[in-house]
Design a protein that fits this description.
The chain is α/β, with parallel strands linked by helices and 304 residues long. It is built from eight helices and 15 strands.
Length: 304
Protein backbone atom coordinates (compact mmCIF):
# COMPACT_ATOMS: atom_id res chain seq x y z
CA UNK A 1 0.00 0.00 0.00
CA UNK A 2 1.21 3.50 -0.84
CA UNK A 3 0.56 5.96 1.94
CA UNK A 4 1.60 9.55 1.31
CA UNK A 5 1.92 10.97 4.81
CA UNK A 6 0.74 14.40 5.77
CA UNK A 7 3.41 16.97 6.51
CA UNK A 8 2.94 20.02 8.67
CA UNK A 9 2.27 22.94 6.29
CA UNK A 10 5.23 25.25 5.76
CA UNK A 11 3.04 28.28 6.36
CA UNK A 12 1.95 26.88 9.74
CA UNK A 13 5.59 26.23 10.73
CA UNK A 14 6.51 29.80 9.82
CA UNK A 15 3.66 31.23 11.88
CA UNK A 16 4.43 28.92 14.81
CA UNK A 17 8.01 30.19 14.96
CA UNK A 18 7.20 33.84 14.28
CA UNK A 19 4.26 34.11 16.67
CA UNK A 20 6.55 33.43 19.64
CA UNK A 21 9.19 35.91 18.53
CA UNK A 22 7.19 38.85 17.13
CA UNK A 23 3.72 40.37 17.30
CA UNK A 24 1.55 39.20 14.41
CA UNK A 25 -1.05 41.45 12.84
CA UNK A 26 -4.69 40.58 13.52
CA UNK A 27 -4.99 39.17 9.99
CA UNK A 28 -1.86 37.02 10.32
CA UNK A 29 -2.87 35.81 13.79
CA UNK A 30 -6.30 34.79 12.48
CA UNK A 31 -4.64 32.98 9.57
CA UNK A 32 -2.28 31.19 12.00
CA UNK A 33 -5.14 30.03 14.24
CA UNK A 34 -7.13 28.82 11.22
CA UNK A 35 -4.17 26.83 9.89
CA UNK A 36 -3.44 25.40 13.32
CA UNK A 37 -7.00 24.24 13.94
CA UNK A 38 -7.28 22.81 10.42
CA UNK A 39 -4.04 20.84 10.79
CA UNK A 40 -5.15 19.49 14.18
CA UNK A 41 -8.34 18.23 12.56
CA UNK A 42 -6.44 16.62 9.70
CA UNK A 43 -4.17 14.80 12.16
CA UNK A 44 -7.25 13.50 14.00
CA UNK A 45 -8.68 12.22 10.73
CA UNK A 46 -5.36 10.53 9.91
CA UNK A 47 -5.54 8.65 13.21
CA UNK A 48 -9.13 7.65 12.43
CA UNK A 49 -8.04 6.39 9.00
CA UNK A 50 -5.51 4.03 10.56
CA UNK A 51 -8.41 1.55 10.85
CA UNK A 52 -8.72 1.52 7.07
CA UNK A 53 -8.02 -1.71 5.18
CA UNK A 54 -4.37 -2.26 4.30
CA UNK A 55 -5.53 -3.10 0.78
CA UNK A 56 -6.36 0.53 0.01
CA UNK A 57 -4.06 3.35 -1.09
CA UNK A 58 -4.17 6.54 0.97
CA UNK A 59 -2.72 9.85 -0.22
CA UNK A 60 -2.73 12.89 2.06
CA UNK A 61 -2.20 16.58 1.46
CA UNK A 62 -1.99 17.08 -2.31
CA UNK A 63 -1.93 20.35 -4.24
CA UNK A 64 -2.79 19.60 -7.86
CA UNK A 65 -3.56 21.62 -10.97
CA UNK A 66 -5.78 21.13 -13.98
CA UNK A 67 -6.07 23.65 -16.82
CA UNK A 68 -4.31 26.33 -14.72
CA UNK A 69 -6.71 25.85 -11.79
CA UNK A 70 -5.12 24.65 -8.53
CA UNK A 71 -7.03 22.57 -6.00
CA UNK A 72 -6.14 21.20 -2.58
CA UNK A 73 -6.94 17.63 -1.50
CA UNK A 74 -6.92 16.61 2.16
CA UNK A 75 -7.15 12.84 1.55
CA UNK A 76 -7.59 10.53 -1.45
CA UNK A 77 -8.45 6.87 -0.88
CA UNK A 78 -8.16 4.37 -3.73
CA UNK A 79 -10.53 1.46 -3.20
CA UNK A 80 -11.63 -1.19 -5.67
CA UNK A 81 -13.05 0.60 -8.74
CA UNK A 82 -13.74 3.79 -6.81
CA UNK A 83 -11.82 6.82 -5.52
CA UNK A 84 -12.89 8.55 -2.31
CA UNK A 85 -12.18 12.27 -1.94
CA UNK A 86 -12.26 13.47 1.67
CA UNK A 87 -12.24 17.10 2.79
CA UNK A 88 -11.68 17.32 6.55
CA UNK A 89 -13.09 20.14 8.67
CA UNK A 90 -12.38 20.75 12.35
CA UNK A 91 -15.34 23.06 12.93
CA UNK A 92 -16.58 23.34 16.51
CA UNK A 93 -19.97 24.48 17.79
CA UNK A 94 -23.34 25.01 16.10
CA UNK A 95 -23.61 26.09 12.47
CA UNK A 96 -26.63 26.88 10.30
CA UNK A 97 -26.76 26.08 6.58
CA UNK A 98 -27.98 29.17 4.76
CA UNK A 99 -27.27 27.85 1.29
CA UNK A 100 -24.44 29.97 -0.10
CA UNK A 101 -22.96 30.50 3.38
CA UNK A 102 -22.96 28.84 6.77
CA UNK A 103 -23.24 30.90 9.95
CA UNK A 104 -22.15 30.31 13.54
CA UNK A 105 -23.96 31.06 16.80
CA UNK A 106 -22.26 34.46 16.81
CA UNK A 107 -23.50 35.10 13.25
CA UNK A 108 -20.03 34.72 11.78
CA UNK A 109 -20.43 33.68 8.15
CA UNK A 110 -18.18 31.15 6.39
CA UNK A 111 -18.34 29.99 2.82
CA UNK A 112 -20.30 26.78 2.39
CA UNK A 113 -17.52 24.14 2.34
CA UNK A 114 -19.61 21.94 0.04
CA UNK A 115 -18.92 24.41 -2.78
CA UNK A 116 -15.18 23.93 -2.35
CA UNK A 117 -15.64 20.15 -2.22
CA UNK A 118 -17.70 20.13 -5.43
CA UNK A 119 -15.10 22.28 -7.23
CA UNK A 120 -12.35 19.93 -6.09
CA UNK A 121 -14.30 16.88 -7.27
CA UNK A 122 -14.90 18.39 -10.73
CA UNK A 123 -11.23 19.34 -11.22
CA UNK A 124 -10.01 15.98 -9.92
CA UNK A 125 -12.38 14.15 -12.26
CA UNK A 126 -11.08 16.11 -15.25
CA UNK A 127 -7.49 15.52 -14.21
CA UNK A 128 -8.05 11.77 -13.83
CA UNK A 129 -9.78 11.59 -17.20
CA UNK A 130 -6.77 13.29 -18.80
CA UNK A 131 -4.66 10.47 -17.32
CA UNK A 132 -6.97 7.82 -18.78
CA UNK A 133 -8.62 7.02 -15.45
CA UNK A 134 -12.41 6.78 -15.39
CA UNK A 135 -13.08 5.43 -11.89
CA UNK A 136 -16.05 7.12 -10.19
CA UNK A 137 -15.26 9.65 -7.46
CA UNK A 138 -17.21 9.68 -4.21
CA UNK A 139 -16.56 12.87 -2.26
CA UNK A 140 -17.31 13.53 1.40
CA UNK A 141 -17.06 16.41 3.83
CA UNK A 142 -15.71 14.93 7.07
CA UNK A 143 -16.42 16.76 10.33
CA UNK A 144 -13.97 15.41 12.88
CA UNK A 145 -14.71 17.53 15.98
CA UNK A 146 -17.13 15.75 18.37
CA UNK A 147 -18.83 19.04 19.35
CA UNK A 148 -19.85 20.10 15.84
CA UNK A 149 -23.49 20.34 14.78
CA UNK A 150 -25.06 21.65 11.58
CA UNK A 151 -28.67 22.80 11.38
CA UNK A 152 -29.90 22.12 7.87
CA UNK A 153 -33.18 21.71 6.01
CA UNK A 154 -32.24 18.60 4.04
CA UNK A 155 -30.03 15.52 4.32
CA UNK A 156 -26.82 15.66 2.29
CA UNK A 157 -25.12 12.24 1.88
CA UNK A 158 -21.79 13.96 1.21
CA UNK A 159 -21.60 15.18 4.81
CA UNK A 160 -20.21 12.81 7.44
CA UNK A 161 -20.88 13.98 10.99
CA UNK A 162 -18.77 12.88 14.00
CA UNK A 163 -21.39 10.32 15.09
CA UNK A 164 -21.28 8.74 11.61
CA UNK A 165 -17.50 8.25 11.39
CA UNK A 166 -17.46 4.63 12.59
CA UNK A 167 -20.23 3.61 10.19
CA UNK A 168 -18.49 5.37 7.33
CA UNK A 169 -15.27 3.48 8.13
CA UNK A 170 -17.14 0.17 8.03
CA UNK A 171 -18.51 1.15 4.63
CA UNK A 172 -15.02 1.89 3.32
CA UNK A 173 -13.78 -1.47 4.59
CA UNK A 174 -16.73 -3.46 3.25
CA UNK A 175 -14.93 -4.75 0.12
CA UNK A 176 -11.21 -5.18 0.91
CA UNK A 177 -10.18 -6.38 -2.57
CA UNK A 178 -6.45 -6.33 -3.27
CA UNK A 179 -5.64 -3.56 -5.73
CA UNK A 180 -3.78 -4.27 -8.95
CA UNK A 181 -0.59 -2.54 -10.12
CA UNK A 182 -2.56 -0.07 -12.23
CA UNK A 183 -3.84 1.57 -9.03
CA UNK A 184 -0.28 1.84 -7.73
CA UNK A 185 0.88 3.38 -10.99
CA UNK A 186 -1.95 5.92 -10.92
CA UNK A 187 -1.18 6.84 -7.31
CA UNK A 188 2.50 7.34 -8.11
CA UNK A 189 1.54 9.49 -11.09
CA UNK A 190 -0.68 11.70 -8.94
CA UNK A 191 2.03 12.05 -6.27
CA UNK A 192 4.48 13.18 -8.96
CA UNK A 193 2.04 15.95 -9.92
CA UNK A 194 1.94 17.42 -6.41
CA UNK A 195 2.87 21.12 -6.40
CA UNK A 196 5.16 22.45 -3.67
CA UNK A 197 4.04 26.01 -3.09
CA UNK A 198 6.06 28.48 -1.04
CA UNK A 199 3.93 30.27 1.55
CA UNK A 200 3.43 34.03 1.42
CA UNK A 201 4.60 35.27 4.81
CA UNK A 202 4.69 38.67 6.51
CA UNK A 203 8.09 40.41 6.28
CA UNK A 204 10.48 39.83 9.18
CA UNK A 205 14.16 40.34 9.94
CA UNK A 206 16.63 38.84 12.37
CA UNK A 207 16.87 42.03 14.45
CA UNK A 208 13.13 42.31 15.06
CA UNK A 209 12.73 38.75 16.40
CA UNK A 210 13.02 38.03 20.11
CA UNK A 211 16.02 35.87 20.96
CA UNK A 212 15.96 32.81 23.20
CA UNK A 213 14.91 29.16 23.11
CA UNK A 214 11.23 28.31 22.80
CA UNK A 215 9.61 25.53 24.82
CA UNK A 216 8.34 22.81 22.43
CA UNK A 217 5.22 22.21 24.54
CA UNK A 218 3.72 25.67 25.12
CA UNK A 219 5.89 27.86 22.85
CA UNK A 220 6.89 30.16 25.71
CA UNK A 221 10.54 31.07 26.15
CA UNK A 222 12.66 29.06 28.55
CA UNK A 223 13.45 31.20 31.58
CA UNK A 224 15.77 29.04 33.69
CA UNK A 225 18.79 26.85 33.24
CA UNK A 226 19.82 24.35 35.92
CA UNK A 227 23.05 22.57 34.97
CA UNK A 228 22.38 20.79 31.69
CA UNK A 229 18.62 21.36 31.61
CA UNK A 230 16.35 24.23 30.62
CA UNK A 231 13.11 24.83 32.54
CA UNK A 232 9.96 26.44 31.17
CA UNK A 233 8.43 28.87 33.65
CA UNK A 234 5.00 28.48 32.04
CA UNK A 235 4.44 24.71 31.79
CA UNK A 236 7.43 23.37 33.80
CA UNK A 237 8.82 21.40 30.83
CA UNK A 238 12.43 20.25 31.29
CA UNK A 239 14.71 19.73 28.30
CA UNK A 240 18.38 18.91 27.83
CA UNK A 241 20.38 21.95 26.73
CA UNK A 242 21.86 20.08 23.75
CA UNK A 243 18.50 19.05 22.28
CA UNK A 244 17.02 22.51 22.91
CA UNK A 245 19.89 24.24 21.14
CA UNK A 246 19.64 21.84 18.20
CA UNK A 247 15.92 22.59 17.83
CA UNK A 248 16.68 26.29 17.86
CA UNK A 249 19.39 25.90 15.24
CA UNK A 250 16.92 24.12 12.95
CA UNK A 251 14.41 26.90 13.60
CA UNK A 252 17.04 29.52 12.71
CA UNK A 253 17.95 27.65 9.52
CA UNK A 254 14.27 27.43 8.59
CA UNK A 255 13.62 31.14 9.11
CA UNK A 256 16.93 32.31 7.62
CA UNK A 257 18.00 29.74 5.01
CA UNK A 258 20.45 32.14 3.35
CA UNK A 259 22.26 33.16 6.52
CA UNK A 260 25.47 31.45 7.67
CA UNK A 261 25.25 29.37 10.83
CA UNK A 262 28.11 30.53 13.04
CA UNK A 263 28.93 30.12 16.71
CA UNK A 264 28.38 33.84 17.32
CA UNK A 265 24.96 34.08 15.73
CA UNK A 266 23.63 30.88 17.35
CA UNK A 267 24.99 32.08 20.68
CA UNK A 268 22.98 35.27 20.18
CA UNK A 269 19.92 33.34 18.91
CA UNK A 270 19.94 30.97 21.91
CA UNK A 271 20.43 33.80 24.40
CA UNK A 272 19.63 31.76 27.52
CA UNK A 273 22.77 29.65 26.93
CA UNK A 274 25.46 32.04 28.12
CA UNK A 275 28.48 29.87 27.31
CA UNK A 276 29.76 30.30 23.75
CA UNK A 277 31.92 27.23 24.34
CA UNK A 278 28.76 25.14 24.88
CA UNK A 279 27.26 26.43 21.63
CA UNK A 280 30.45 25.64 19.72
CA UNK A 281 30.55 22.11 21.17
CA UNK A 282 26.95 21.39 20.18
CA UNK A 283 27.44 22.76 16.67
CA UNK A 284 30.71 20.85 16.17
CA UNK A 285 29.09 17.59 17.33
CA UNK A 286 26.10 17.82 15.02
CA UNK A 287 27.11 19.84 11.97
CA UNK A 288 29.98 20.01 9.54
CA UNK A 289 32.40 22.92 9.93
CA UNK A 290 33.45 24.61 6.68
CA UNK A 291 35.69 27.58 6.10
CA UNK A 292 38.29 29.05 8.44
CA UNK A 293 38.57 31.91 10.90
CA UNK A 294 35.98 34.64 10.10
CA UNK A 295 34.42 32.57 7.31
CA UNK A 296 33.92 29.46 9.48
CA UNK A 297 30.32 28.26 9.57
CA UNK A 298 28.34 25.08 10.02
CA UNK A 299 26.31 23.11 7.49
CA UNK A 300 24.21 19.96 7.70
CA UNK A 301 26.02 16.72 6.87
CA UNK A 302 24.87 15.34 3.52
CA UNK A 303 23.66 12.08 5.06
CA UNK A 304 21.53 13.95 7.62
Amino acid sequence: MINRKRLEPLELIFFKYLSSRMALSDTDFWRYQTLKKGYEGEKKSDIWLQDLSDEWIVLHDLLLEYNQSKFQIDTLIFTYEKIHLLDVKNYEGDYTDNGENWSTETNLKVQNPLHQLNRCEILLSKLLHSLGCHYPIESHLIFIHPEFHLYQTSINPKIIFPAQLNRFMKKLNSRPVKLSDKYLELAEQIISMHIVQQPCMPPYSYDQLRKGIICPKCYSFYTQRVRNKLICGTCSTLEEVDSAVLRSVKEFMFLFPDQLVTTDIIHDWCSIVKSKKTIRRILSSNFKLVGHSKTANYIVYEDK
